[in-house]
Design goal:
binds adenosine monophosphate; single chain; five-stranded parallel sheet; Rossmann fold
């Protein structure tokens, strides 16, 4: 099964993709994580991506498409995948479709996680993440038991450089201009599952799993 998790920054794609991937035995491929790993390692890719990420802009299509398709090609043909954060532009969606056709594969379903704009901004600007296991926390909604430490693994919590209020606003703008058109693209292809992304984490995960198994939302 090849699935895309689509939604605005802060909609919970990463959190949900991790939970659903575990439950449905799928590989979680997150373009943002691939960029952050490259950045941590100080590779050419990381250096290229850095300035775009810091400004809340998209990394150019050519670089992003190559990175994600390379990653997919390292996974076995039988491996099911959840793509999280990719595609984010029509050009990326088209390049993905084309690459999959060559492997006689296709995207099966797109889970569109829908969250209101006010809620998105609130979530993005209060988010802290574990440096070690990537578990997300929120200063108001889900604070850690010990300030600055991950409940799950004791790792150090940090705020992503692009999770400040200003950058969060920019990322939402970019999402509405460049990524939201993908909702229509996948709706027309008959692949879109619309999921209510507000509520408790486990409630949302079970909505997604149920919709994916049934093939409709
Ligand atoms: P994310 O962790 O998905 O919110 O991504 C963090 C940042 O990485 C984004 O704000 C972009 O700068 C970059 N990025 C991640 N995925 C993509 C993509 N599919 N296309 C372009 N840039 C991306």
């Amino acid at each position: 099964m090849y699935v895309i998790f689509l939604g605005a920054p802060g909609a919970g794609k990463g959190t949900q993709a991790a939970v659903v991937a575990k439950e449905m035995k799928l590989e979680h491929v997150a373009s943002g994580d691939l960029f952050r790993q490259a950045l941590d390692k100080g590779t050419e890719l990381g250096k290229l991506a850095k300035s775009y990420m810091e400004k809340g802009q998209l990394v150019p299509d050519e670089i992003t498409i190559r990175m994600v398709l390379d990653k997919i090609s390292t996974l076995g043909k039988q491996t099911g995948i959840i793509l999280d954060g990719f595609p984010r532009t029509l050009a990326q969606a088209e390049a993905l479709d084309k690459a999959l056709v060559k492997q006689e594969k296709a995207i099966d379903k797109v889970a569109y996680i829908k969250v209101g704009e006010k809620e998105l901004l609130k979530r993005l600007s209060g988010r802290w993440i574990c440096r070690n296991c990537q578990a997300p926390y929120h200063i108001i909604d889900s604070p850690p038991k010990v300030k600055g430490k991950c409940d799950a693994c004791g790792g150090e919590l940090y705020q992503r450089a692009d999770d400040t209020v200003e950058t969060a606003k920019k990322r939402l703008e970019v999402y509405f201009a460049q990524t939201a058109p993908l909702i229509d693209y996948y709706k027309k292809a008959g692949k879109l599952l619309e999921i209510n992304g507000e509520g408790k984490i486990d409630e949302i995960s079970s909505r997604i799993v149920t919709a994916l198994k049934a093939g409709h939302s």
